């Protein structure tokens, strides 16, 4: 009888451990899943079809592309409005100096370099308003360079 009790206890322990791992992986409402870079002409963003009008576009059933320009001292568009329960790829570039793009309280975080497009893909969860900050020193207004990412 003791053997069965021990067996039941260890099965329960394993289930609890599995449960905590699964719970931990759910994480924050915006979670970064990938990060890469590609070139762009920083002196001609006005003529670039992605960045002449910074915006969020639907590109698939539950997939969105957000074209974002960082500048001294802010982000465009502001706020960046993206739908809940979707996959959002941010394409972020700078029109002047190096900036950061960090969605506060999440692991979505990348450096933004003029001449490069930082591509980061996130999964959104439920509606939340996130702060967006620059975490690379970029000049006198660095400390006030912020935006918003609104999951709706
Ligand atoms: Cu932009 Cu610091």
TrEMBL record:
Q: Which InterPro entries match?
A: Ba3_CcO_II_C, CcO_II-like_C, Copper_CuA, Cupredoxin, NosZ/Cyto_c_oxidase_sub2
Location of this chain's protein in the cell: Cell envelope
Q: Which UniProt keywords apply?
A: Copper, Metal-binding
Positions of the Cytochrome oxidase subunit II copper A binding domain: 51-152
| Record GO terms (molecular function) | copper ion binding; cytochrome-c oxidase activity
- Name the Pfam families on file: COX2 (PF00116)
> What's a GO cellular component annotated to this UniProt protein?
membrane
Q: What is its main location?
A: other
Keyword Metal-binding included in the entry's annotation:
yes
Task: Output the superkingdom of the source species.
Answer: Archaea
What protein does this entry describe? Cytochrome C oxidase subunit II
Q: Which organism is it from?
A: Halorubrum saccharovorum
